[in-house]
Automatic annotation (TrEMBL):
Pfam families: DNA_photolyase. Keywords: Chromophore. It comes from Vireo altiloquus. The gene is Crydash_0. It comes from the Eukaryota. InterPro entries: Crypto/Photolyase_N_sf, Cryptochrome/DNA_photolyase_1, DNA_photolyase_N, Rossmann-like_a/b/a_fold. This is CRYD protein. Residues 1-77 form the Photolyase/cryptochrome alpha/beta domain. Coiled coil: none annotated.
Length: 77
């Protein structure tokens, strides 16, 4: 979870992630973790800036051959 998603937006000061969206995200992550656990896997969840968290995870895991990510599309007004 990127803490920057829970601050006001740059343009309007509205929360980027309101309480309903946050609840949906938390329930979705919980469900995904439970589903993966039933299949013998796991889900790593971290709180922090992705550019820091991913680097830390790579260091902890030691042998990472690829990292895949997506970047949020931002609307330019």
């Amino acid at each position: 979870f990127d803490p920057r998603h829970y601050l006001g937006t740059h343009w309007h000061g509205f929360p980027k992630t309101g309480p309903h969206r946050l609840r949906f995200l938390l329930e979705s992550v919980k469900d995904l973790r439970e589903t993966l656990k039933k299949k013998g896997s796991t889900l790593v969840v971290r709180n922090g800036k992705p550019e820091d968290v991913v680097c830390d995870l790579i260091t902890q895991l030691g042998s990472v051959s690829a990292v895949v990510f997506h970047e949020e599309v931002r609307e330019i007004l």
